[in-house]
């Protein structure tokens, strides 16, 4: 379900929860399918060190079945760090908070790690990957700044890709597709079948895939 309006238009932030509830209701017109819900749309607005928002509260209610006694697995992306600050890694990830509604207690919030550290040093001499292999992805937000009575997020991490540091000015750039994931492109029929993909949107998609595979194997 597309929840973002056409370019130039904006949803009222007070309605984010209602839009999410309506979107889930639309796909549940067919009640006989088992589903995993994945939402990679987040906002840095309304973050308050992990405190609930109207959006996260709605996600919590939908996930727990509080309103209709139907529990749901809702997978959320943790949100991405400020791209202009990623050269400060890992500090940029430790101080940039998980985005709303990722603070929801009952949802599965997905951050990113990376194993992608190989880049073409012949084409990009002097460049080096930001994150070491197996460490937190530069795009992944955390809850390190939250007060202790709120949840620890993200709940899990999946591959989110890496970035590289410029030897010229020390800035961060995606630069080499080898540092990103590969996915199908939205212009598939027009000849662009594959595109690079990354950050916590990719991590959330991988988590949804894993959850769907588990559900397929163990439907009960």
Give me the number of helical elements.
Answer: 4
**What is the SS-derived class?**
alpha/beta
Mean of pLDDT: 94
Largest sheet: 5 strands, mixed
Low-confidence stretches: none
Portion of residues in beta strands equals: 15-25%
**What overall form do the CA principal axes indicate?**
globular
By DSSP, the count of extended strands is 10
Q: End-to-end distance, in Å? A: 26 Å
Radius of gyration: 18 Å
Helix residue percentage: 10-25%
- The SSE string, one letter per element, is HEHEHEEEEEEEEH
Structure report:
This protein has helices at 16-27, 54-64, 91-95, 199-217, and strands spanning 37-39, 74-77, 108-114, 128-129, 135-136, 156-159, 164-165, 172-173, 181-184, 194-197. The protein is α/β, with parallel strands linked by helices and 220 residues long. Strand 1 (37-39), helix 2 (54-64) and strand 2 (74-77) form a beta-alpha-beta unit. The chain starts with 15 loop residues before the first helix and ends with a helix.
